[in-house]
Amino acid sequence: MENAVEVSELKKYYDDVKAVDGVTFTVETESIFGMLGPNGAGKTTTIETIIGLLEGTAGEIYVLGMETSEKISDVKKRIGVQLQDPSLFPRLTVGETLDLFAAFYPEPLSVQEAAEQVGLSSSLDGRINSLSGGQRHRLAVSLALISNGDIIFLDEPTTGLDPKARRDLWETIRNVRRNGSTVFMTTHYMDEAEKLCDELVIIDHGKIIATGSPDRLIEDNFPHQAVEFADPGLSPEDRNDLLGISASGGINFEENEGKVILYSEDVGKTVTDLIDYTRKLGIDLDNLKVRSATLDDVFLKLTGRAIENE
Amino acid sequence: MNRPKILYKMFVANAKEFFRDRASLFWMIAFPLIFTFIFGMVFSGNDEVVYSLGISVDKETPITKELVNQFDEIESFNVSTGEIAKELEELERGNRKMVLEIPGITREGVTGGKSSTVRLYYSQGEQETNRALISAIKEIFSGIEREVTGRAPLFQLEPEPLETRELTNFDYVMPGILAMALMQLGLFGVFQFMSLRENKVIRGLAVTPLPRDTFFESEVALRLIIAVIQTFLIILIGRTVFGVKILGSIPILIGLVVLGALTFVSMGYMIASFSRTLEGGRNLVQTVQFPMMFLSGIFFPIEFMPGYIRPIVKAIPLTYLGDALRQVMVGYPPEYSLSTDVYVLTGWFLASTFLAIRFWKWE
After folding, report:
1. Residue A137 domain-assigned?
2. Do A87 and B6 make contact, defined as CB atoms within 8 angstroms?
3. What is the CATH number of the domain that holds A267?
4. pLDDT band at B96, cuts 50/70/90?
5. Is the pLDDT reported for residue A310 higher than 50?
6. Distance CA B232, CA B229 (A)
7. How close is the nearest chain A Cα to the Cα of B33, in Å?
8. CA distance B103 to A171
């Protein structure tokens, strides 16, 4: 079976910026594929190049087996797209907008269905210019869904949504997969990528720095657990001493969040060592936590900085 | 995929967007109608003009009485009598068009062949009106003179009014208002597109299978339909309220309306392709639209304009649309032949379409 999307050596250069600098990946059908990275990493440029909104500088893109530079109008009939900063006819209602977009596709969902999936059923008569930011955002997602396309492209679909709406949208996205479509989404939320996506690419400065399922990525990078505590204000010497503690996965001093994280395969020993060490220095261990590694840790390890601080 | 259906839905969406926007409704529909009403009320009144004439008689005699009566009987004069000083004051204030100072003329004096001097005061300016009034007044005096002297006039002028069509000022202006409405439709109408473009609505449509030419077709179709609505409403008001007679053939009129709308719609798109932002577009439209409105002769004949402006007048498409509509709608004497008008408009249409495509910006 052909892959939903195949991208090889895609480059998109602007005058002095390499927005996307040679990315290669494959999206399997009936999966939720996530592109994770900080703002400005090249996620939006990648997605907009794949759907034919931007023209790539180099590289090949196949969507549903079709070369996009040649067959973009055929591709468009079989995909649904939600762009960032969605903008619509301000004086139409939600229902009218959905109805208009439904007309563009060969086998669309009904207006009612598409609205229901994002919880907008009760707002069908509301004018676009009277919607809240969150509602507008959900409408944009539902305009992608109404295509009933084989691939649904979602660029930061949950940005600006409250936690409840976010979780609901995750369920909607899982439904899309259940119904046999593929989801290609970007996000800068680690938890979202981890909980929602089957496959991930992590992108930074226009380059892919890791690929795999969330579990795989964590396992590959961290066969360890993380021991985390609030930085009591360690001096450089203290930090050097701390490096002597058995932490096979390394230590991260997360300056911005004031945390120290030790990665270890033998948590018991690391914690004991840590307690001895802090006793010796006479400092308190605040907010001591032992947890499994997350995608945050992966990103931190790969790039040396935390993603949410961007 | 079903293209007619997409076109229809896109058209309906555009139409709703248009008719729910008060600003565009005002400029495209209400503004031309308000213009029609205002010009209609100012110009179409067929009432004869009445001039107020002050007469001051030094010393009343049967003859002077007769004179005053003669003037009073003429409908075009609104005669008031009074002291010369007072009447001159009124003249100065503008309450009298002219003031006659009549000396005490006696029958004996007249029959004795004594010439009397009647002074006529008036303010300078409005030379044509003054000249006409002076000769009318002279004519009245010689009429009285003939009566007194009993000499038969050598020439009898018999006015025989025929039932010809009288072109009023409003007949001239009404096609001009339609031309203005079509211009605004094209030039202001493009703001809707520019605002959709600036707010990235067009970008959002670009990721759907909606063909871009279908989007355009829907916009142009909407403009043309609005053009026909404007035409209908303006003619309706012109005919029913102000009694304008439409002479020309309706198919030719509709053809001209469509050509005019297309010309200005493509000029609008040309402006959209020259300027990136809505604000820039507005400025550009204003610099084009305002002079065009006053230099095209849609509100007053081109002969009223000084010679050095004529070349500009001759370059403006609105001049030709106004001229063509005047010929066809009310049978006004043409400035250019109808085919010249059509050629020039088509030229503008093709040129601005070419430039619009050449410099087109989707984003």
Report:
1. yes
2. no
3. 3.30.70.100
4. confident
5. no
6. 5
7. 25
8. 107
Let me know how many helices (H) and strands (E) chain A has, helices first: 11, 14
A90 to chain B: which residues are within 8 Å by CB? 17, 199
Q: Are A199 and A31 in contact (CB under 8 A)?
A: yes
Say whether residue A99 is in contact with chain B using an 8 A CB cutoff: yes
Does A87 contact B at CB distance below 8 Å? yes
Written out in words, the top-level CATH class of the domain with range B51-149 is alpha beta
pLDDT score at A175: 92
| Whether residues A234 and A177 fall in one domain | no
Number of independent structural domains in chain A: 2
For residue B179, name the pLDDT band (cuts at 50, 70, 90): very high
Answer yes or no: do A89 and B13 touch at CB < 8 A. Answer: yes
Which has the higher per-residue pLDDT, B50 or B342? Answer: B342
Question: Which residues of chain B neighbour A114 with C-beta distances below 8 Å?
Answer: none
Nearest by CB to A104, which of B200, B201, B209? B209
* More confidently predicted of B281 and A303: B281
Which residues of B fall within a CB distance of 8 Å from A128? none
Inter-chain CB proximity A89 and B21 less than 8 Å: no
A45 lies in the same domain as A158: yes
Is the pLDDT at A256 greater than 80? The verdict is: no
Q: What tokens does A75 get? A: 């591709």
| CA of A228 vs chain B CAs: smallest distance (Å) | 44
Inter-chain residue contact A77 with B207, CB threshold 8 Å: no
User: In this predicted model, what pLDDT tens digit does every residue of B120-172 receive, in sequence order?
Assistant: 888 877 777 788 888 888 888 887 777 777 777 777 777 776 656 667 788 88
**Is B333 within 8 Å of B175 (Cβ atoms)?**
no
Q: What count of residues does chain B have? A: 363
ipTM, interface predicted TM-score of the complex? 0.81
Q: Which of A69-73, B59-63, B357-361 has the lowest mean pLDDT?
A: B59-63
Same domain? A43 vs A64: yes
Amino acid at A223: P
Q: Which of B159, B115, B121, B109 is nearest to B141 (CA)?
A: B115
Taking contacts as CB-CB distances below 8 angstroms, the residues of chain B near A136 are: none
d(CA B127, CA B96): 16
Chain A residues with CB-CB distance to B218 below 8 A: none
Per-residue confidence (pLDDT) for residue B48, from 0 to 100 = 59
pLDDT, tens digit (0-9, with 9 covering 90-100), for B229-239: 999 999 999 88
Q: What's the CA gap between A189 and A156, in Å, rounded?
A: 9
Measured CA to CA, the distance from residue B37 to residue B230 in angstroms comes to: 14
**Residue A309 domain flag:** no
Range of the domain at A149: 5-213
Task: Check CB contact under 8 Å for A53 and B5.
Answer: no
